Amino acid sequence: MEFIKTLEVWFVVGSQHLYGQDALKQVEQNAEQITNYLNQQNPFIQIKLKPLATSSSEILSICQAANNEDKCVGLIAWMHTFSPAKMWIAGLSQLNKPLLQFHTQFNQFIPWNDIDMDYMNLHQTAHGDREFGFIAARLRKPRTIVVGHWQSQSVQQKLDRWMRVTAAIYDQKHLKIARFGDNMREVAVTEGDKVEAQIKFGYSVNGYGVYQLVNAINQVSEEDIASLIQEYEREYQLSDALKENGEKRTALFDSARIELGLKAFLQKGGFNAFTDTFENLNGLKQLPGLPVQRLMQQGYGFGAEGDWKTAALVRALKVMSFGLPKGTSFMEDYTYNLDENNEVVLGAHMLEVCPSIAQEKPILDIKPLGIGGKEDPTRLIFTAKSGPAINTTIVDMGNRFRMIVADLEAIEKPQAMPNLPVGHAFWKLQPNFDIGTQAWVTAGGAHHSVFSLDIDAEMLRIFAEFFDIEFIHINKNTELATLKNELRWNESAYR
Prior knowledge:
Helices cover about 40% and strands about 20% of the residues. The protein has about 500 residues and is an alpha/beta fold. The chain has two domains: about 1-170, Rossmann fold, CATH 3.40.50.10940; about 175-495, no CATH class. A six-stranded antiparallel beta barrel has the order 11-12-17-16-15-18. A five-stranded parallel β-sheet has the order 2-1-3-4-5, with helices on both faces. It has a four-stranded parallel β-sheet with strand order 7-6-9-10, with helices on both faces. The model has no long low-confidence stretch (mean pLDDT about 95). This is L-arabinose isomerase. Belongs to the arabinose isomerase family. Its EC number is 5.3.1.4. GO terms for molecular function: L-arabinose isomerase activity; manganese ion binding.
């Protein structure tokens, strides 16, 4: 994620010449003080103050420059004074970067004994931002609105969350996804329009023969394999079969070779997400389990059975959650514990769950896999952390993409499962199991998803609004009748 350090968010402050040069100088000084303060709080992306925007031509120039500056990932707009919004039409009409409307003012409190008309003219965010808000609404411009004083910790957190989403949007536009093999045969939801996805999100999806991956795997050196084995031994609890002199030790070397070859292929091609499928493993000794888990933890997007939409979404949430402690993973609703009024979902996959969500030090083990027709694969086994979480998916509805987000409560493992051979999570659905399940299925939610303990629905709403895709949020207030109406209305809105 080194690219994040190179990114910028531009801070654009609106005003006008009506109040005189002294007022404009004060606006510039205040804007500089705010910028310096926010940058001292170690934001996710550094903020760069732009020249004061006081005319249509200046605003247009800033917006065009933002479009053309690759490292600029978004604009923060603040109306310090009143800024007549017709000046913003040309610029906002052309702006193609995420926009945040910063509804703040320089002074937190009214100077009760000293306030006069000069003060009123200078500190006009309260109604200057309403003028800006109208023109953004009139232009149907998607934007995030952050309200509050700029020194407030909650405001800084909101800015940081928005920046995380802008970084993910930037990354999606530059993302390359490699597919090894096709989709799992006869599966519907993992299919989709790759051309439309590139038009809508910017990422490209292309297929590569498994033999090309095998060629990269065969070029891995023995020295690099030995070094990676030592890393495995430091990071994980190895089962006896995989320890030195263990009966399955050679399988660990095979996994290390696959991991190194796969990573080399991805790095050489500039890919930050990938898919594979157990139905196309020609030349591989085992289905990549451990290698995929570790690459996900390093920030790569992944989708099983050729699911490129989920691979792209895993990558997006990996970028958003970079540096956060709880984790994000490819996931699948696998099976239920139907204890009435206390139903629990067991989420897992046959191998590929990211250890970033692990509560404890993972066990590195080898177990049989009944599909794929290859040697037994290695994998990391663990239980996920508990706490507020989400599952999200993007599905292709034919005439649009739909993002579905479900609020969850991830819980501790209800009891020991000594024979479960995969990384896994447990959660309860909102508002309850019955409605939460019906809502997901009614909306067409996929069986593959992205599970995150770091990202929430409102961050994903910003992401969906920028790309102009449908957004469905299943939460504690969800009612099925209302959801069904929302889906009907959306069908008309996107027709």
